[in-house]
Amino acid sequence: MQFRQIPPPQYLRDYIRFFWVLESNDKDVAAATFRTIADGCPGLIFQHRDHGILFQNDKQLPGTILYGQATRHAALRIDGRFDTIGIFFYPHALKSIFGLNADELTDTCLDLDGIPASRGFQLSAQLTDISAPEARIDILCSFLLAQLTKYHQQSDKAMHHALDRIRQTNGNISVKALREELQLSERSFERKFKQHVGITPKLFARIAQFQASMQLIRQSDYNKLSDIAFENEYADQSHFIRAFKEFAGASPFQFMKKSEELIENLSILTK
């Protein structure tokens, strides 16, 4: 199995965290299961249908998938070889790039070829016809740039400010404080945030807090779990473990023992 993480071009760095490529030349691979966890970001996955089939909950997924915010963990299975390329977007990308209300895709996905944004571009066909990951990324970049010229006006400075403040504080900022900074009512702030990000500000802040704790685990920057709970302002260790189970599907100990993280927030499950 070969995995690569590729940075986006400069002109897309405000929208894309990174591209990722997962390939396998082992024809004997029967199936592999991957764990996804809540990370506060939507994304895109292309899977070459002749080389492998992607399933979630035993449901076969389309070849090119646009997915929204995840509020919980999930399992994906690939039957066959791996010939997969994906994009980790920033939280506002569904609105900024595709003109979609982000809450329409929360905890779900759609066939990218079936939305008006991609009609006429024949994205899946173009990606299938070439094999080099770099060439596929060039096609995806051209497609996304074309979308930005249509929908970049959907960007909202107030929501960008809210996202930046939540990330800067690792989720440890009150929604009330954010509303006061932006001079928005509670109802208006929550409505706009869900349209641009897909979930409520409070839930996004909880996921940001969880992700900050994940980073300490990845870096082994702790002596005991209570250190992580304290560092990320959880009430206590039990609150931290409950949040971890909610977003990762396992306790911190189980996650480290049974998951091999390929990239941030995407692990292959080990037996």
From TrEMBL:
Highest taxon in the source lineage: Bacteria
UniProt GO MF annotations: DNA-binding transcription factor activity; sequence-specific DNA binding
Keywords: DNA-binding, Transcription, Transcription regulation
InterPro entries on file: AraC_XylS_family_regulators, DUF6597, Homeodomain-like_sf, HTH_AraC
Domain HTH araC/xylS-type as annotated: residue spans: 156-258
Protein name in UniProt: Transcriptional regulator, AraC family
Organism for this UniProt entry: Chitinophaga pinensis (strain ATCC 43595 / DSM 2588 / LMG 13176 / NBRC 15968 / NCIMB 11800 / UQM 2034)
